[in-house]
Amino acid sequence: MIAGLGNPGREYEGSKHNAGFTVIDELARRWGVNTWQTRMDAEVAIANVDGEQVLLVKPQTYMNDSGKSVGPLMRWYKIDEKDVYVVYDDMDLPIGKLRIRENGSDGGHNGIKSLFANGCRDFVRFRLGIGRPLGHMDVIHHVLTPFPEEYRQTFADGAAYAAEAVEGCLKLGVSKGMNRYNPRRNR
After folding, report:
1. How far apart are CA 187 and CA 184, in angstroms?
2. pLDDT value for 67
3. Three-state DSSP class for residue 51
4. What pLDDT, in 10s, does the model give residues 24-78?
5. According to the annotation, is 62 in a ligand binding site?
């Protein structure tokens, strides 16, 4: 299962908080997926990737309740937590930067807190940077608005890279994928 976190509705399309939806849409485009169903408060599609079925999920519960669809879907489809990839926005990373982790804390992210509360803790995290609010902007306004024009291409490039990293982790395994797609540290 690959779940991208975000908020449903036209008013949130293109918002920074919908980074997960953006990556799921890119994967669907790459894999020729265009049939979606509504299941357990989520948009769900099944892709065939290298002979394996992969469930694409966009929870429709709003970010703070994402676990209310991801947890039940994981159990319904009998998917092990380690086979759940979750893609979401991260303000602690620069715009478009990706960080993959096999596990960890919620990092203060309400969508991840909801997954924890709904029985999904040990999943692979794909954190896509949206940067910190500028100037006097508060966090809520920052995450619920689109990127300014000058950052849109940087984010789009990052979302495409995140989709490539998800594909790479599916093919190579998470450990090798992390080695290939996580940013290198300066030595």
Report:
1. 9
2. 96
3. coil
4. 999 999 999 999 999 999 999 999 999 999 999 999 999 999 999 999 999 999 9
5. yes
Residue 28 carries which side chain, given as an amino acid letter?
Answer: A
Token pair of 84, please? 């759940």
| Strand spans (E) along the chain | 2-4, 37-39, 42-49, 52-59, 85-90, 98-101, 124-129
pTM, rounded to two decimals:
0.95
Q: Is the pLDDT of residue 187 over 60?
A: no
Token pair of 149, please?
């024009």
Catalytic residue, from 17, 109, 141, 142: name it: 17
Question: Which domains are assigned to the chain?
Answer: 2-181 (3.40.50.1470)
* 186 marked ligand binding residue: no
Write out the two tokens for 73. Answer: 């879907």
Q: How far is CA 65 from CA 93, 124, 129, in A?
A: 23, 19, 21
Look at residues 42, 99, 106 and name the one whose alpha carbon lies nearest to residue 74.
42
17 carries an active-site annotation: yes
Q: Which one, of 52, 48, 45, lies nearest residue 24 by Cα? A: 45
CA-nearest of 73, 80, 88, 71 to 23 is 88
The closest of 175, 185, 164 to 82, measured between CA atoms, is: 175
